[in-house]
Specification:
Shape of chain B: globular
Distance between the termini of chain A: 18 Å
Largest sheet of chain A: 2 strands, antiparallel
Structural class of chain B: mainly alpha
Strand content of chain A: under 5%
Order of helices and strands of chain B: HHEHHHHHHHHEHHHHHEEHH
Order of helices and strands of chain A: HHHEEHHEEHH
Number of strands of chain B: 4
Number of helices of chain B: 17
Largest interface: A-B, 51 and 50 residues
Chains: A mainly alpha, B mainly alpha, C alpha+beta
Oligomer: heterotrimer
Largest sheet of chain B: 2 strands, antiparallel
Chain lengths: 273, 436, 209
């Protein structure tokens, strides 16, 4: 079995490259954190009856803090009511009928049209609509943000090395620039951002910035954690189904493997090999 | 194929069919009663695993193609729609993306098996060459497939690799523009890559058919590298493929699927790159453009040539080295001069083989790194920057070894090494002593 | 003495204990194959975004008496007409035997096979809601709003000359069936929901007249 060991060692060495290549430039590697959804059995559920309060709080932080600059283009209001979503309710198998989702949607004005006069108009949202973007196009977004483009957040947790750890570290990682750091006006120092100079000011900057509907104390760390979990859900809404199905598949394959192995031993029992 | 067909149609319908299209007979002769050496070890299960994964990729791919939109304004979003809205789309997409990786793991293990046990040696040269053709088709298919999601890595990986074509003298630019269908990677490129990505797997399936046909003429190789004996004693060397190897391959496939499922369901993105979750932006190049891991060794070889060789400039040199690294596989049967097939009986050459495997893994490591990154630090220079052994040099060393293995070591070792004594026959090997 | 073919063969014998493992493994393979097949089949069913638009809510408060609107639902037109008292009376003053199609074609729960009285085609008499594709070959009929209402001053299909009446029932022409009534109910005084869930369908208020 020598060859196998050597190849296994080589693969392990390759595995090192995955982490090593993530050190980008001068940025510090974010600290590894335990998230509610971490691990093969982790879910987004934190309530006694499977409610997802952290997702709801994170949504609130997104709406009140982030949405003024960051779009969430791939998330529709109905996603909030789908299985394992923030407002999932078993009574409403179709998220379109979920009353909370309908209410959230209706609070938004969505562009529609053209009407019979040829004009575009606004109307209250329905569950099928998507979260409206704060800016109509990239140029407007840049113009409003000193030339920098606030990225869409639908996939942000998957689109960054270290995922949720990075997002949380970034949100809480603002600080005094070290000696000799070059910061242009409109730039802020964040030790986790490549190069250190980020165009976004600390978005969550004081305790109580958001008043949580469920009364949870809104410290900066709490808000950062909640919105990170929400964004992790936005990047991967089917995570819970994926893990539970994965468990069933692996169990099934394990049993199947044993059966086939026994059949193999049976077939080869009386044969020299 | 040893001996005449043993298929006997039992029912009226099967007799009638056999007279007109003996397809059941073909299946029987190839996969049921086919005499297979009785000493095959688990390294021989990767062929079956590869067939299963080709099927997985084709089926999951056809389904994805029902929902994917090959237009630059919609491609990225259509993939996200598959992940979010299509029923089980997240699973099918994950199977397809990870399936490609597991397809390559299996093909590399299958190829290393071939190198170690001399599966490319006479009379299996064509079998080996067909295999290299399949490998090339797989690389083309995977390359084009990776462009389709139209993420940052999709776009920029395509830019870098297609720009290499421009290195060819005289015709390079024309061919590159022809490939692109424009002045850079864009809509025309995306659309044609989609069409070809759908086509090539079926070409692969056809070549796989030829590959199995070419295998069945001499029959399988085996770990001791001896031929199956002619006549009746041959029966003692072999077992019918079914049920002995169907059940063994079946077991191996299930174990492999368990590893696959672990990635699909619990680590679906770990083999990918975070930047590919950002939509392609022609104005913004990612900090590190890296191909998927299965191309990394060739990427390292490409970047190893940093100097001009006579009239050949470094860029062209890199392209030639990269394609040369694959082309050399075609002539391997004639480079290895040893008349002994299996390296079990070539103890010195075996060491060189082990180093070759390590070199391939090392080249993969180099491909993932910046050429200027250091393998290890040796000190500091006048300005206090670290100096040490660069990955570039490591890659160059390993590239040298890669080519030396085929062009120098194998030809020489076949002549100068005295091989160990082989057993008298496969049966003797099985009844006798060593199993290593 | 072991021959090259040492495989057990169950010809003509009951499955022995040795064969049990083959049956078990084969059975597991069959079950697994079936379970794996389902996602690959289900992916062709409508996706979540399509299903999201499988039901829509229409505010009819702006549709004044004697006028109608057309909404797109599930990729096809639906006519919503706010009928006047006269139109309702005209729709009701019809003998069943005068109708080429005596079935109300009402897709709501419990309304299968109901006779084509106007009362069986509306939840509230003043709102007639029907699918807008001619039952002949699918063209969209024109309405009286465009003064192309046909003989009954309601709907007329210009493709092959089908005439529908004030209850959108076929009266003359090649169309075989009345324009179907989709599943809907009044979620409130002014909002119609097209496309009902099972629970909504059970409590929608439709009943055979």
């Amino acid at each position: 079995m020598k060859m196998v060991h050597i190849i296994a060692a080589g693969l392990a060495a390759l595995g090192l490259t995955a982490t090593a290549s993530a050190l980008e430039g001068d940025a510090h590697t974010p600290e590894k954190r335990e998230w509610i959804f971490s691990g093969p059995f982790g879910t987004y559920a934190d309530g006694d009856h499977g409610e997802r309060y952290q997702l709801q709080r994170g949504l609130q932080v997104y709406q009140e803090v982030c949405a003024s600059c960051h779009s969430l283009d791939l998330i529709s209001f109905r996603n909030l009511g789908q299985a394992a979503g923030p407002f999932w309710d078993e009574r409403f198998e179709n998220p379109n009928d979920n009353t909370v989702v309908m209410q959230i949607a209706a609070n938004y004005q969505i562009w529609d049209g053209p009407n019979d006069d040829g004009d575009m108009f606004q109307r209250p949202g329905i569950p099928a609509d998507y979260f409206p973007a704060p800016f109509e196009n990239e140029q407007m977004a840049r113009a409003a943000n000193a030339g920098a483009l606030p990225p869409d957040l639908s996939l942000i947790v998957k689109a960054r090395s270290h995922g949720a750890d990075y997002i949380y570290a970034l949100l809480t990682g603002y600080g005094e620039a070290p000696e000799g750091t070059d910061l242009s006006p409109g730039q802020y120092y964040n030790e986790y951002f490549t190069g250190g100079a980020i165009a976004m000011a600390a978005p969550i900057s004081f305790d109580g910035q958001v008043e949580y509907a469920d009364g949870t104390e809104a410290t900066v760390e709490q808000m950062a954690e909640d919105v990170t979990v929400f964004l992790a859900w936005a990047s991967d809404p089917h995570m819970e189904a994926r893990k539970s199905m994965g468990l069933m598949v692996l169990l099934y394959l394990f049993v199947f493997a044993i059966l086939v192995y026994l059949a193999y031993r049976q077939v080869w029992a009386n044969v020299e090999h | 194929m040893s001996g005449p067909s043993t298929y006997e149609p039992k029912s009226g319908f099967t007799r009638w069919l056999d007279d007109r299209l003996p397809i059941i007979r073909l299946g029987w002769d190839s996969f049921v009663d086919f005499p297979t050496p009785r000493n095959l070890n688990y390294w021989w299960t990767f062929g079956g695993i590869l067939a299963v994964f080709l099927m997985i990729q084709i089926i999951s791919g056809i389904i994805l193609a029902m929902h994917y939109v090959p237009h630059e304004s919609m491609a990225f979003d259509s993939v996200e729609r598959i992940r979010r809205d299509v029923n089980f789309g997240w699973m099918i997409q994950s199977m397809h993306a990870n399936g490609a990786a597991f397809f390559f793991v299996a093909v590399y293990l299958h190829m290393f098996r071939g190198l170690y046990y001399g599966s490319y040696k006479a009379p299996r040269e064509i079998l080996w060459i067909l295999g290299v053709v399949i490998y090339l088709l797989m690389m083309a298919t995977a390359f084009m497939g990776y462009v389709l999601p139209w993420g940052q890595m999709s776009y920029w990986g395509a830019m870098v690799i297609t720009n290499l074509i421009g290195a060819l003298p005289f015709v390079g630019d024309a061919i590159r523009e022809w490939l692109w269908g424009g002045f850079s990677v864009g809509q025309a490129t995306l659309n044609r890559f989609f069409s070809l990505h759908y086509l090539l797997p079926f070409v692969i399936a056809g070549v796989v058919g030829l590959h199995i046909w070419a295998l069945h003429v001499p029959g399988n190789g085996n770990p001791v590298g001896l031929d199956v004996r002619k006549g009746d004693s041959g029966k003692k060397d072999t077992l019918p493929f079914h049920p002995y190897y169907t059940v063994k391959d079946g077991f191996a496939i299930i174990v492999y699927l368990m590893v696959f499922a672990t990635f699909v369901f619990f680590m679906p993105n770990v083999l990918g790159h975070a930047d590919n979750f950002i939509e392609a932006n022609p104005l913004s190049t990612p900090a590190h453009i890296v191909p998927e891991w299965y191309f990394l060794p060739f990427y390292a070889i490409l970047r190893a040539v940093t100097f001009d060789i006579g009239p050949i400039d470094a860029k062209l040199g890199g392209v030639l080295a990269m394609f040369g690294a694959i082309a050399i596989l075609f002539v391997l049967p004639w480079l290895d001069t040893s008349r002994v097939r299996s390296m079990r009986y070539r103890p010195l050459t075996r060491w060189f083989f082990i180093f070759f495997v390590l070199a391939c893994l090392g080249l993969g490591w180099c491909g993932a790194k910046n050429p200027d990154d250091l393998v290890f630090v040796m000190g500091h220079d006048a300005e206090g920057h670290e100096v040490g052994f660069k990955f570039l040099w490591f890659g160059q060393l390993l590239t040298l070894y890669y080519f030396a293995y085929f062009l120098v070591i194998l030809p020489i070792m076949g002549i100068i090494e005295k091989p160990k004594e082989r057993p008298a026959s496969i049966e003797a090997a099985v009844l006798g002593t060593d199993k290593s | 003495m072991t021959e090259h073919n040492g495989a057990p063969d169950g010809h003509g014998q009951e499955p022995s204990r040795r064969d049990f493992i083959y049956i078990a493994a084969g059975g597991a393979a069959a079950v697994g194959g079936g379970l794996v097949a389902w996602p690959f089949v289900d992916q062709m069913n409508p996706a979540a975004d399509t299903l999201a638009l499988g039901s829509i809510r229409v505010d009819v408060s702006q549709v004044s008496a004697g006028s109608e609107i057309t909404v797109m639902w599930r990729g096809a037109p639906v006519f919503i007409r706010h009928r006047t008292e006269e139109e309702i009376a005209e729709a009701r003053d019809v003998d069943l035997s005068a109708l080429p199609d005596e079935d109300a074609r009402n897709e709501n729960a419990g309304m299968e096979g109901a006779p084509a009285y106007d009362a069986n085609r509306v939840l509230r008499p003043e709102f007639l809601i029907v699918k807008g594709n001619c039952t002949h070959l699918g063209c969209v009929p024109t309405s009286q709003e465009t003064s192309q209402g046909g003989e009954y001053e309601a709907w007329y299909c210009p493709c092959h000359g089908s005439h529908y009446d004030k209850s959108a029932r076929i009266r003359r022409g090649p169309a075989p069936e009345n324009l179907p009534v989709p599943d809907y109910f009044f979620e409130s005084e002014t909002v119609v929901k097209l496309g009902l869930s099972g629970e909504e369908a059970a409590n929608s208020g439709w009943a055979v007249a």
